[in-house]
Amino acid sequence: MGGSVAAVSSNGVYSFTKPNRESITLLAGLGVEGDVHAGVTVKHRFRMRKDPTQPNLRQVHLIHEELFDEVRGAGFEVAAGELGENVTTRGIDLLGLPAGTLLRLGDEAVVEVTGLRNPCAQIDAFQKGLMKQVVGRGEDGKARFRSGIMSVVVAGGVVRPGDPVKVELPAGPHLPLEIV
Q: Which residue among 51, 65, 80, 145 is least crowded, i.e. fewest CB within 10 A of its CB?
């Protein structure tokens, strides 16, 4: 089971969008080198206000490129990096992965999936109405968050567009992703 890296993005300052790069370097236990969200402890501004000592389970944000295709059908134009993700993938059901899944990005980098990204109001500020496209309801009536997944860096390395992504599922039982 696998796919590929469609784009990589990072930003050294707080901003909703992240510019695309030729490559990013993942640092074990920290995140994306030079990215504002890199660090051992939480760097998300809202979470820092609550408890700045909590571990950073949001070191690397991944989104499946197929989401952009879906929202385009509803009249929205979204490109890689514009929803703040670091790695845009193609060919992987990121939202269907269980917690603890390892994703091998390219030759060396490995991230461990920690949970779902909690979509925020900035999505609607970016494009009005987009939030409804990335938050829906499942058949059970529960909210379904589709704005990507979060991970921590297990092994560092350089990641580039076109790199393969290999999926390694954890031993069962598989736990569904929760918001981190």
A: 51
